[in-house]
Design goal:
There is one protein chain. This protein is mostly helical and 306 residues long. 73% of the residues lie in helices and 0% in strands. The protein is globular, with a radius of gyration of 18 Å. The two termini are 25 Å apart.
Length: 306
C-alpha cells in the first residue's frame, strides 16, 4: 500500500469505528429504527446541500436506469442492513459487531464467484474465505456478547449481523454489475435518499417517534454518526478509492475493529476477551490472504457508512 494513503485509510477507519461506538451508545436512548431514520435523513440532507453548493461539479441525477437500480440498492443494500446492525447493538458490543463486519470481503468474494464471471475463486482466496468465516463462526458459537452486564449474547443478534453482512456485500456485487459506469456520489446520494424514505416513515408508523429519553449527548452522537460516519465516511471512501485504489481502501477493514474494540472498552466499558481477540485474528488473517490472492477487489461496502 502507498504510504501516502496510510493517514487517509487510518482516518476512515477511525470514522467508521467511532460511528459504531456512537451507534452503540445511541441504542440506549433511541429506538433502533428512529435512530437510523434520523441518521439517514440528516445524511440525505447533507447530500442535497452539496448538490446545491457545488452545482457545477455535482448535478442532480436524472438517468432513469440509475434511479431504478440505486433505489433498490438504497432499500435492500442500505436501509435494511443499517437497521439490522444497529438493532444487533442492543445485544452485542460495538467491538464484536465490528469484528464480525470485517468478514464482509470474504462474503463479497463468494458472491462475486457466483455472479461475476471475471471474479472466480482460486485456491488462495478460498483458503482466506474459510479462515475468515471460521473466525466468525467461532465468535458466534461462543455466544460472546462483549458486554460486561450480559453473559451470552442473544443468538438473534448474530443472525441480524450475518443478514446485514450478506445484504450489504450483495450491494457491492450489484454495483459492479449494474452501476459501474455511474458517478459514485450520485449512486450514494440516491441510496441515502431512498433509505431515509424507507426507514423514517416505517419507524413513525410502527415504532413511534419518542425522543423524550434523548439527552444532549444522544443528539451529539446522532449528528456525529450521520455527518462523520455516514456522509463524511462515504465521501472519504470514494476519495480513497479514486486516489489510492481499491486495495488501499480495503485496508480500512483492518482498522475499524481495532478502533471499535479500544474505544468501546474505554468509553462504553465493553469487555475485551480472548475469544474476541482470537476471532479477530482469524478473520483479519483470512481477509489478508484474500487480498493477497486477487488482483481486483470489489469495492467494499462498510456497513457503518451505508
Amino acid at each position: 500500500m502507498n504510504t501516502k494513503a496510510l493517514p487517509y485509510v487510518s482516518l476512515l477507519g477511525f470514522m467508521f469505528g467511532s460511528t459504531l461506538i456512537a451507534s452503540r451508545f445511541s441504542v440506549g436512548q433511541y429506538a433502533a429504527t428512529t435512530y437510523i431514520g434520523l441518521r439517514l435523513s440528516i445524511a440525505a440532507i447533507a447530500h442535497f446541500v452539496l448538490y446545491i453548493l457545488l452545482s457545477k461539479r455535482f448535478r442532480w441525477p436524472r438517468d432513469k436506469r440509475l434511479w431504478k437500480h440505486a433505489v433498490l440498492l438504497g432499500a435492500l443494500g442500505t436501509a435494511v442492513p443499517m437497521t439490522l446492525i444497529v438493532s444487533s447493538l442492543q445485544y452485542l458490543s460495538s467491538g464484536i459487531a465490528s469484528i464480525m463486519l470485517t468478514t464482509g470481503p470474504a462474503v463479497t468474494v463468494i458472491l462475486a464467484h457466483i455472479f461475476l464471471p471475471d471474479e472466480q475463486l482460486n485456491r488462495g482466496k478460498a483458503s482466506g474465505v474459510i479462515i475468515a468465516l471460521a473466525g466468525a463462526a467461532f465468535l458466534a458459537l461462543s455466544g460472546e456478547s462483549g458486554l460486561s452486564d450480559v453473559g451470552k449474547a442473544n443468538p438473534w443478534a448474530y443472525g441480524m449481523l450475518f443478514t446485514a453482512i450478506l445484504l450489504g456485500n450483495s450491494a457491492a456485487i450489484y454495483i459492479r454489475k449494474y452501476l459501474q459506469g455511474y458517478q459514485s456520489y450520485d449512486v450514494a446520494s440516491i441510496r441515502m435518499f431512498t433509505a431515509a424514505l424507507v426507514v423514517m416513515p416505517f419507524s413513525i408508523l410502527f415504532v413511534g417517534f419518542d425522543l423524550s429519553p434523548v439527552n444532549g449527548t444522544g443528539y451529539t452522537a446522532l449528528i456525529y454518526a450521520a455527518l462523520v460516519g455516514t456522509f463524511g465516511g462515504m465521501m472519504l471512501s470514494v476519495y480513497n478509492i479514486k486516489r489510492f485504489g481499491a486495495t488501499a481502501s480495503a485496508m480500512t477493514a483492518y482498522i475499524i475493529p481495532l478502533v471499535s474494540v479500544i474505544l468501546g472498552a474505554f468509553l462504553l466499558h465493553e469487555t475485551i476477551t480472548n475469544v474476541m481477540l482470537g476471532g479477530m485474528v482469524m478473520i483479519i488473517g483470512g481477509i489478508v490472504i484474500i487480498n493477497r490472492n486477487q488482483e481486483a477487489i470489489v469495492e467494499p461496502q462498510p456497513a457503518v457508512g451505508d
